[in-house]
Amino acid sequence: MRRTGYVYDQRYLLHDPGAWHPERPDRLKAIQKNLQESGLSELLTPIQPYPAPLQWVERLHDPDYIRRFREACERGLSIFEVPDCGICPESYEIALLAAGGVMAAVDAVMNGEVDNAFCAVRPPGHHAERDRALGFCFINNIALGAVYLLENFGLDRVAIVDWDVHHGNGTQHLFEADPRVFYLSMHEDPEYCYPGTGFRREKGKGPGEGFTLNLPFAPRSGDEEYLAVLKKEGWPRLLEFAPQFVLISAGFDAHQSDPLAHMNLSRDAYRQMGRLLLELAQETAEGRLITVLEGGYNLEVLEECTEDQVRLLLDIPLDHF
Length: 321
Ligand SMILES: [Zn+2]
Known about the structure:
Layout: E1 4-7, H1 26-37, E2 45-47, H2 54-60, H3 63-74, H4 91-110, E3 116-119, H5 141-151, E4 158-162, H6 169-175, E5 181-188, E6 212-217, H7 223-241, E7 245-250, H8 267-284, E8 289-293, H9 299-314
Parallel strand pairs: 1-2, 1-3, 3-8, 4-5, 4-7, 5-6, 7-8
Helix pairs in contact: 1-9, 2-5, 4-5, 7-8, 8-9
Residues 164-166, 251, 253, 294-295 line the site of zinc ion (ZN).
């Protein structure tokens, strides 16, 4: 068995984007309840999140944007600048705590307290741009984890693999000119799906050219298509990059039962993708891997797929326990 850290905090439930909103506190409640009932939570090492310090957040995000976000929450607004970014008075603090959850997981892995980690955080992060909230996201949690690895721990190469069904526009844009971060995204074809970025022709810019790999899929693609493309195109590029740390932007909304997109992945596809990326981490990164929750809006799918990821990280066979 491996030592797997688990980032969760009850305060993550306080971010309330509105009763109508699919990115709802019940998502984390379902994940948490299932891990407790399955007995897996006892095997995980709890990691206490802390609010991400502003000096780190502002390495990624425009300070004026962060100020606007804080003020919108303080003023009790229910929407922050774009219609799908619902907020409540606590949202600013909780978004910092989500981003700091990933930083705390980075600390725990880099200090050798755990081998890998799963971050059950919300609000999600991968759509958040330098100066703009988008797609339920405010602060780019996983991007902050990458910056922290590069600039606090001195790593040179971090891979972010994003299998959320929506392209992680924010993450791509934050690192597109930075060759230290290889960003690979698998998502529904931007012609048909939010946020409308992530075409194959987007490959990075300047010194970062060649360090962005977008793998869009036609609507209703399934396990075979995803796994074939990941193995044939993604895997060799990831191996060549030889990351010292692997971060997964894990959305579970490409599942066939997810209400927000049009993909046909099964539970097993996520297991296989997770296994492949863990293999990558073992090959080039001494096993260092953090899975960060992004989207996924069917509660049963979230329960099943996060349980599988946690089992994989702990190295507990699927049919045990
Ligand atoms: Zn998504």
